[in-house]
Amino acid sequence: MNQNLYALLARGFGAPQECAIEVPAQGDQPALYYTWRDVEHASAKIANLLESLKLRPGARVAAHLDKSVEALLLYLACLRAGVVYLPLNNGYQAAELDYFIGNAAPEIVVCSPANHEWVKALGKKHRVKRVYTLSDQRTGSLLKAAALQPTRHKVAQKKAADLAAILYTSGTTGRSKGAMLSHGNLGSNVTTLQTTWRWRAGDVLLHALPIFHVHGLFVASHGALINGSKMIWLNKFDAKRVIEHLPRASVMMGVPTMYVRLLDEPGLSRELVRRMRLFISGSAPLLPDTFQQFESRTGHRILERYGMSETVMLTSNAYEGHRAAGTVGLPLPQVEVRITRDDGSTLKASDVGEIGAIQVKGPNVFGGYWQMPEKTAEEFTGDGFFKTGDMGKWDANGYLSIVGRNKDLIISGGYNVYPKEIESYLDDQPEVFESAVVGIEHRDFGEAVAAAVVLKPKASITPQALIARLKSSIAAFKVPKKIVILAELPRNAMGKVQKNLLRDSLKA
Ligand code: MCA
Ligand code: AMP
């Protein structure tokens, strides 16, 4: 049987004339309605275009786009045509994209028209075959080129192990690694989640997440597509617009920041969410306080789950049954999760509360990092478990809690930032001698990036000027929200920077 993920998703599509995706009206923009037939036909046209370009087997198509339904259709077209999709955060700037394009060597890049000039230059540098444009207003050279293509397309034959997408995830060394996800990885996860979260006829998903990461693309969109559920599609999260459309939705997924922002809206009430059956949170820790406040305002206990770019979803709180604040729930069916001690032994269910490293094995776990066989080998154990880099513990009900990370990672509003990468950008500034980057508590983003900087003798620059410089070269979510200038970094006797001390002083 064809294991192409598109074929699996399309089995769930609704009747051709029914609405699959609604983009609500905004300002003077009228509402847009895409039927299931539109989804099939428009993705077929783009898939036919890709096939007409005679790309090499395993070719990558990179997308650096503002969120739009057409960007989702491009993804579906890549699955259909059997080429590898490479989504990139639309906040990335030239230096960041230079690395991704150089590393993944895509044959096609699709970017927003506003960035065309500099992306085209990168395309030339890295010998990209074509650079197309696609805006969030249904314009651009990609749609023009696909316009006359047929609306029928035979889905490419794929095996479960064939590569479907590469998701770049930050690395401890400061350079991102491309996690290679197969049709089988994504297919197994979406079918598991369909039953675990009890997707049902008549569900309507309010989709307000970005679609260049696992959460918005593989968890939210896949869930709705395979279940034939309509999506109410917002190109950007805006708490007021979410409040406006919640009354017509039954499922919503978000990062904790989104729930914190919804709680700040006076309109959030039981009455508003009377049609809702499920709120899901993930990508970052949901504070028990947010969980409790949300329950008292809406009557809903948010279902928290845990995932990674390398593994898609790993665990989930129960749909029926217990949803425990501060935990990420039970391993999903077919997913083996274990916690190991430093000596390599595995915690038993009775070792409640003991902390160790979380490892995972299952059909959802990726095949490895793109062109990094040594790094891949390092991250797997001899018996095939992937080392998540997260630290966790079991409770008496077998629920997992994430209690920290043994990777130096900051999660800000659901986006991952590796301190090393930001330190290297700071250290590149001519006035900077050295720097140290840490995560500090932040009411809105959960954690925020903060930095301490030591200047070179006689050099002078303000924190504001440093922040402005970084903003012009890296994605805004990575730019420190706070920078302090110190005479020296606090170090221990071994000369190692004491990030705990720094965290405390930056918080103050
Ligand atoms: C925006 N900014 C941020 C963030 N987002 N800064 C730090 N952290 C962030 N997450 C910057 C903006 O560029 C802006 O900078 C300033 O902060 C204020 O922006 P604002 O308008 O408030 O932000 P926003 O555009 O409303 O975005 C906030 C957001 C967004 C909606 C929470 O960050 C978001 O969509 N997060 C979701 C990320 C996500 O999908 N993660 C899933 C990864 P300036 O003022 O300088 O312009 S997948 C994953 O983690 C795994 C697999 C899993 O388990 O799901
Ligand atoms: P990424 O692979 O870059 O998308 O990020 C994955 C990381 O996000 C995981 O290794 C966890 O550290 C974190 N994460 C995802 N979901 C949760 C959650 N529900 N609670 C705490 N951390 C989470």
- On the 0-100 scale, what is the average pLDDT? 97
The side-by-side strand order for the widest beta sheet comes to 2-1-10-9-11-12-13-14-15
Distance between the termini: 60 Å
Structural class: alpha/beta
Enumerate the distinct ligands: methylmalonyl-coenzyme A, adenosine monophosphate
Shape designation:
globular
Helix content: 25-40%
The CATH first-level class of the largest domain comes to: Alpha Beta
Could you give me the name of the CATH homologous superfamily of the largest domain? ANL, N-terminal domain
The fraction of residues assigned to DSSP E strands is 25-35%
Q: Please report the number of helical segments.
A: 15
Uncertain residue ranges = none
CATH architecture of the largest domain: 3-Layer(aba) Sandwich
How would you sum up this structure, described in words?
The chain is an alpha/beta fold. The protein folds into 3 domains: 5-236, ANL, N-terminal domain (Rossmann fold, 3-Layer(aba) Sandwich), CATH 3.40.50; 278-405, Luciferase, domain 3, CATH 2.30.38.10; 409-507, GMP Synthetase, Chain A, domain 3. It is 30% helix and 25% strand. The chain is built from 15 helices and 25 strands. The chain has a 9-stranded mixed beta sheet with strand order 2-1-10-9-11-12-13-14-15. Strands 4-3-5-6 form a 4-stranded parallel beta sheet, with helices on both faces. Helix 4 runs parallel beside helix 5 and helix 7 (183-196) packs across helix 8 (214-226). The radius of gyration is 23 Å and the shape is globular. The chain starts with a helix and ends with a helix. The mean pLDDT is 97. The structure holds methylmalonyl-coenzyme A (MCA) and adenosine monophosphate (AMP). Methylmalonyl-coenzyme A is lined by residues 209-210, 213-216, 237, 255, 257-258, 282-283, 307-309, 412-415, 445, 471, 476-477.
